[in-house]
Amino acid sequence: MSAAPQRLNFERLEADDARRCSVGESPVWRAAENALYWVDIPAQMLVRYSLAHARRTEWTLPERVGCIAFDCNGVVLAAMESGLFAVKLGEAADGARQGTVSVRLVAAVEHTARRMRFNDGRCDRQGRFWSGTMVQDPVGREPAGRLYRYDANAGLSAPVIGGLCTQNGLAWSPDGRTMYLSDSYPTERHIWAFDYDLDDGVPTNRRLFANLHDYSGRPDGAAVDADGCYWTCANDAGLLLRFSPDGRLDRSIELPVSKPSMCAFGGPRLDRLFVTSIQPAGNVGEHDGCVLVLNPGVAGLCDPEFAAAL
């Protein structure tokens, strides 16, 4: 069963076309700063936009970064190409846009193939960080990706799940007891649900939650709202899809970009939805690569911080 696509009013977070991303990903709302952070993967860039001051700050990182989280002190946990890094951000000088960074490796990863990096990721409700790997610019189907868990005491886990092509869609239900994961490679396009043990952080009982072969697009980054519904960006279809906790598609929203990549709830009441996007090869649309802001009529959840100080 499909939901008829609807159109919502939207804004661009930034009007300047020069500030579009090549591959925008990993939007994270920081309530204490009234600011949104996200990354541009090929540019090796972390970006912050302060809504309070209408100001953009950029930080250049040493490797491509797939996703980020924060600890309680505002230090960034960044999943890059060779591992996980603690990144301390320095503010830009007055009138400047570029901030300074101090980067420290906290967990190296042994990849299963060449040209790999971390991709999508976030913290679970207990503050353990999860992220998966993928082959960059794959030639055909290469299921070399793995999903990892990281906490300060146990370090980086052995691969928890393997055989992934393009890992994506990590999210948790409001009570933390259901974990979601997707594979957005064109031949895969599945979203799975798992039972999730709150104490040891182990997912079990893997089952198909949604098959996007039945709908449109590829399941990219995701978020869960306060009602427990799962929102996923349907890459290549220009849609934002919402699934109820039982896997039923109940909303489909048309977006003014062809390749939405990830969504995050934010704003003072967590009722605004920020959507990053990718500039496609070839014809680039008016808003492709921008961060969009929607008012979906529901509230979301705060992204948990990493449980230990980095």
TrEMBL record:
<dbReference type="InterPro" id="IPR013658">
    <property type="entry name" value="SGL"/>
</dbReference>
<feature type="binding site">
    <location>
        <position position="137"/>
    </location>
    <ligand>
        <name>substrate</name>
    </ligand>
</feature>
<feature type="binding site">
    <location>
        <position position="25"/>
    </location>
    <ligand>
        <name>a divalent metal cation</name>
    </ligand>
</feature>
<feature type="binding site">
    <location>
        <position position="168"/>
    </location>
    <ligand>
        <name>a divalent metal cation</name>
    </ligand>
</feature>
<dbReference type="GO" id="GO:0005509">
    <property type="term" value="F:calcium ion binding"/>
</dbReference>
<dbReference type="InterPro" id="IPR005511">
    <property type="entry name" value="SMP-30"/>
</dbReference>
<feature type="active site" description="Proton donor/acceptor">
    <location>
        <position position="220"/>
    </location>
</feature>
<comment type="similarity">
    <text>Belongs to the SMP-30/CGR1 family.</text>
</comment>
<protein>
    <submittedName>
        <fullName>Gluconolactonase</fullName>
    </submittedName>
</protein>
<dbReference type="InterPro" id="IPR011042">
    <property type="entry name" value="6-blade_b-propeller_TolB-like"/>
</dbReference>
<keyword id="KW-0862">Zinc</keyword>
<feature type="domain" description="SMP-30/Gluconolactonase/LRE-like region">
    <location>
        <begin position="23"/>
        <end position="278"/>
    </location>
</feature>
<feature type="binding site">
    <location>
        <position position="220"/>
    </location>
    <ligand>
        <name>a divalent metal cation</name>
    </ligand>
</feature>
<dbReference type="GO" id="GO:0004341">
    <property type="term" value="F:gluconolactonase activity"/>
</dbReference>
<keyword id="KW-0479">Metal-binding</keyword>
<dbReference type="Pfam" id="PF08450">
    <property type="entry name" value="SGL"/>
</dbReference>
<feature type="binding site">
    <location>
        <position position="119"/>
    </location>
    <ligand>
        <name>substrate</name>
    </ligand>
</feature>
<feature type="binding site">
    <location>
        <position position="117"/>
    </location>
    <ligand>
        <name>substrate</name>
    </ligand>
</feature>
<dbReference type="GO" id="GO:0019853">
    <property type="term" value="P:L-ascorbic acid biosynthetic process"/>
</dbReference>
